[in-house]
UniProtKB/TrEMBL annotation:
Transmembrane segments: 53-74, 94-114, 161-178
Protein name: Cytochrome bc1 complex Rieske iron-sulfur subunit
Membrane disposition: Multi-pass membrane protein
Keywords: 2Fe-2S, Cell membrane, Disulfide bond, Electron transport, Iron, Iron-sulfur, Membrane, Metal-binding, Oxidoreductase, Respiratory chain, Transmembrane, Transmembrane helix, Transport
Localisation per UniProt entry: Cell membrane
Length: 353
C-alpha cells in the first residue's frame, strides 16, 4: 500500500507543474473588440440622439419655471385629492413634482448623452502609485482633452446650450424657497391689536386666566397679571400670531416707587401695562420680583426695571419694554386708549431704535 502511494506522488506533482508551466488558468482575457454604436456610424441617428438629449434639458428648464410659478400661484392652504396619495397639499405636491422632473431630466439627459454620443471606447490602465509622475499627468490631460473633443460638447451646441440653461435655472428653485421662510412683515410689526383703541373708543383689558374684564381695584401692589385685548379668544385661528404681539403684563407699584415720570403718566394709580414680549428674541416674560420690581426673561436672562420705564438693566435685550397707556372706564374696568408708542418685540432693521 505504501509503495503504491509513493508511485502516485511524483505523477501528481508532475501534473501540477505542467499546468503552471504551460498556462495560467486566471490569465487576463483582455478587452473585447469594440463594437461601434449606431450613433457612431449614422449621423442621422446621432442628430436624433442630440435632439432627444436637448429635449430633456428643455423639459428640465420648463419644470423649473413650473416650480417657480407653482410657488407663486398656488395657495399654501389649498388641499387636493391625488390618487393614490389621498388628500395632500396642492402646493407641496406641485413643488415636489416640478422639482423632481427638473432634476430627473438633467440626469436622464446626461446619461443618454453619455450612452449615445460620448466616446465609449474602454481604455485600460495599469495600477500605479497614488502620486502621479509628470508623464502620467500629461497622459491624463491628453485623455481629458481627447474625451472632451469626442463628447461633442463644443461641437454639439444644442446640447451644450440646453444643458447650461437647465443647470442655470435649477438653482432658482432653492432661491425661490427662501421666500417660504415667512411672509414679508411689511407694516405688520409696527402695530398690535391694541391699535383699535382710541380715546373715544377705548379697548378693554381681559384677564388671560379668567377671560374677564380687569378692574383696577382687583390688582394689588406687588402682583403680576397677564392681559390681552377684548375680542381676542383662544379659539381664533390666528390667536398665536396675535397674542405674540398683544400680550400684556400688568404690575401695580406704589406710585412713590415709580422712578420714571412718563411711565407713571401712562399707568393708572400705579398700575403699569408693559408688553409681555422680550425685546431680545421675543420670548414671553413671566418672572417678576416684587421687591426690586425687576422682570426677568427666562430665555436669556434679560432683566427689566418695571419701576423705571422697563429699561434693560441686564442681559442681551436691546431696548426697554414698550408701555401701553391705560385708564378706567365708567365701570372701573381697565381700558387702553391707543397702541404702543413703538413696536413690540425684538429690534429689526426698520425700527428707529
Amino acid at each position: 500500500m505504501s509503495h503504491d502511494m509513493s508511485e502516485n506522488l511524483p505523477e501528481s506533482h508532475g501534473s501540477a507543474g505542467e499546468v503552471a508551466e504551460h498556462g495560467n488558468p486566471f490569465a487576463d482575457p483582455g478587452l473585447p473588440a469594440h463594437e461601434p454604436r449606431r450613433t457612431d456610424i449614422d449621423e442621422r441617428a446621432a442628430k436624433r440622439a442630440e435632439r432627444q438629449v436637448s429635449l430633456m434639458f428643455v423639459v428640465s428648464m420648463l419644470a423649473t419655471i413650473g416650480f417657480i410659478a407653482s410657488f407663486v400661484a398656488i395657495d399654501p392652504d389649498k388641499i387636493v385629492y391625488i390618487f393614490p396619495l389621498g388628500k395632500v397639499s396642492a402646493l407641496n405636491f406641485a413643488l415636489g413634482m416640478t422639482l423632481g422632473v427638473a432634476l430627473f431630466m438633467i440626469g436622464a439627459g446626461a446619461v443618454h448623452w453619455a450612452r449615445t454620443l460620448m466616446s465609449d471606447v474602454e481604455v485600460p490602465a495599469e495600477r500605479h502609485p497614488i502620486e502621479a509622475d509628470d508623464e502620467l499627468r500629461a497622459d491624463i490631460m491628453e485623455q481629458f482633452r481627447q474625451g472632451a473633443a469626442e463628447s461633442g460638447f463644443g461641437r454639439r451646441k444644442m446640447i451644450r446650450n440646453t444643458l447650461l440653461g437647465s443647470l442655470a435655472l435649477v438653482p432658482l428653485s432653492g432661491v425661490v424657497l427662501l421666500r417660504d421662510l415667512g411672509p414679508l412683515p411689511e407694516k405688520k410689526l409696527m402695530g398690535t391689536g391694541w391699535g383699535k383703541a382710541t380715546q373715544a373708543m377705548p379697548l378693554e383689558l381681559v384677564n388671560m386666566s379668567t377671560m374677564q374684564p380687569m378692574k383696577a381695584e382687583d390688582i394689588v401692589v406687588g402682583s403680576l397679571t397677564f392681559a390681552m385685548p377684548k375680542g381676542l379668544t383662544t379659539h381664533d385661528e390666528d390667536f398665536q400670531q396675535r397674542i405674540a404681539k398683544d400680550a400684556l403684563m400688568l404690575v401695580r407699584i406704589a406710585p412713590e416707587d415709580i422712578k420714571d415720570d412718563k411711565s407713571r403718566e401712562l399707568g393708572f394709580e400705579g398700575i403699569l401695562a408693559y408688553s409681555k414680549i422680550c425685546t431680545h428674541v421675543g420670548c414671553p416674560i413671566s418672572l417678576y420680583e416684587q421687591q426690586t420690581h425687576h422682570a426677568l426673561c427666562p430665555c436669556h436672562q434679560s432683566t427689566f426695571d418695571l419701576a423705571d420705564g422697563a429699561r434693560v438693566i441686564f442681559g442681551p435685550a436691546g431696548h426697554p419694554l414698550p408701555q401701553l397707556k391705560i385708564i378706567t372706564d365708567e365701570k372701573g374696568n381697565l381700558v387702553a386708549t391707543g397702541d404702543f408708542a413703538e413696536p413690540v418685540g425684538p429690534s429689526y432693521w426698520e425700527r428707529a431704535r
